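Hey, I'm writing a tutorial for new members on how sequence and structure tokens pair up, and I'd like a real worked example in the thread rather than a made-up one. If someone can provide the structure for the chain below, I'll link this post from the tutorial.
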Amino acid sequence: MLKFPGWRIEPKARTLFALVAVGCVGFAVAIIALMYSSLAVVTNKANQIYETRSIEYVQGAILTSLTRMTARVEDNTVWDDAVAHIYTDRQDDNWFYATWGAVAQDGRDYDGIYILDEKFAVVTGYVSGQKVDPAAVSLGSGLDALINVHRDNLQTGKTAVSGMTRSSRGIAIAGIGLIRQTDGTLSGKGSTKRYLVMTRHLSAGMLKELSDAFRIDEIRLTDRSGSTKPYLQLEDASGLELARLSWTPRQPGAEAAEAARSGIQTIAWLIGGLILLMFAVAGYSLMKFAQGEQVARTFAFTDNLSGLPNRRALFDQLRRVDKKRGAAHKAVVFIDLDGFKDVNDIYGHATGDKLIMIVAAALKEFLPNHGALARMGGDEFALLLGGKDADARAQIFAEKSLDFLTKPIRIGERTVQIGASIGIASGDLKAVRSQELFRRADLAMYHSKSTGKARITWYNDELDAQRLRKQAIETGIRDGLKRGEFDVVYQPIIDARSGRMASVEALVRWPGRPDGELFPDQFISIAESSGLIQALGEFVLRRACKDLSLVPELQLSVNISPAQFRDVEFESKVAAILAEIGFPADRLELEVTEGYLIENPERAIAAVSALKALGVSMALDDFGTGYSSIGYLRRYDFDTIKIDKSLASQVDRDPQAAALVAGTVNIANALGLAVTAEGVETEDHVRLLRLAGCQYLQGYYFSRPKPLAEVLGNAATEKTAARA
């Protein structure tokens, strides 16, 4: 302890110190009491909010199940094949079982399937794959009430409906709809009607699915006497209570309070420390000044969430390493967490913070001797190693880290799945500075992320070459748009019946590039990642509209990048270009791939609706390579399906591909959509795709993409030959 000669406390000073001490202690007690009382209020409020939201979640789960049942019944009742097999003098039980009865065995979509007559009496049915006696079937008063409420709509086949009922097997979701032709009518059957009923009981398995899907603990069926809050009352169409759904409520407020307890205690200790500091300032000013400087340095160089050194600390270490002489060998490992943003977005930043702490603790366990580990910020970590065996130790550390980070991680009561992209660089400090090693490791990490994630990449010179090439292409695109280096070519789309050219698809080319032409697959992805696809796409649309404005008999098709579709101003930009050129909107068709629509359904629906309101047609491109759901086609209101060339070009040698094309055409016809087949390269393709019912054909058999003048010249030549 330092002593200062001549230093003593005068009586007045003692009184002043006492008053300050009482005031500080009182202030500290008041703050701590306020903190704990506020925490109690927040805890109770958080628990109440969760209880209210849990009721909304369970209600949403039931409504979602009802909606799915309605959609499932609708999909199975609007069906020509069902009409052909159900509306017969003698019931086709084999078809009924093969089509619906067998599916009821697993109970995933439904566990009961029944046919009702025009009086809504059970004709036949299957429960869990077993045929039942119609006389013994009781579907409950809930289904009767549902029929009474919606009788007119059911009898006319306007819609299918679903509701809750209590059958002889328990509480169930029941859906009913009139079996009718694809066009929605039921002609030639007189007064005879057949209704399809599907049921799915609220079994333990289904309730567990709801619990898992909506993260509600132990959803269960109870009656009025056995239910506890919170609960959801299940009613049939008449408002009669059937049962209640209860569940075990969580206590997020208590969990948060427990998590904050250590922080509050820390604050309390800090307040006490400040009081002591006030007493010590006069006598120990020099010592406190030195200690304050050290504390400030510690805070400045420490990440307060993970407890690891921060970016500043690591760079300071790098600078000190670079000042040392000799050919010391160093290795840098750079780790970026994959999926961390999703954890933050889905579960909140509190969960994300806990994940960072768990990861930091795990990385400390794998830390090699004399290694410097730091959190670089966000979801990035870096390790600096030295010594002749630095490369081997860096590889071991990276492998252990990747193995840990690719496994499920438990955070409280939930489990999250992330991953990691890791880059490593090493070298002798005589040849390369530490800062350069860090840059190389960072570049290697981005290569891991861009090539599939969850992998380790060692830096090599080719990575820099790729980076420089990408930068050069990006700069070239930007300058090329200014200098007019890009061009648009067109590929004809042929009317399958008449053989005449009905429209053309506009495709971008880069023939004026000073270093030689690049194909689209070499620069489109770079344009998308750099944001230049917006300007490039507008150039293509503007040029194509201008070119085709002189050829009024042809329609125009333009492919749209997902990056363009994400732009909330895209629709207004299209409208502005059409107005600028004076190009009729009804001659323009925009093509979009289904991948973006699945990822961003709400934005996609809004964009498609706005574009169609302008009069623009919409085509689903590359159909057959992805999800390709019927309900998906109906939801987005497309005008055209473009069957991908990977499917259409196989019709002459793959029976399955031919069947898929024919099925796609049938579906499109039922939905009122036109079908264009891409990849047409042979006369057999033309013949088979025409027989399959495709309205339009496109491919190298007719023409490769060419300048518009050549396309029109070829078309004129074909017309002259046809007249001769």
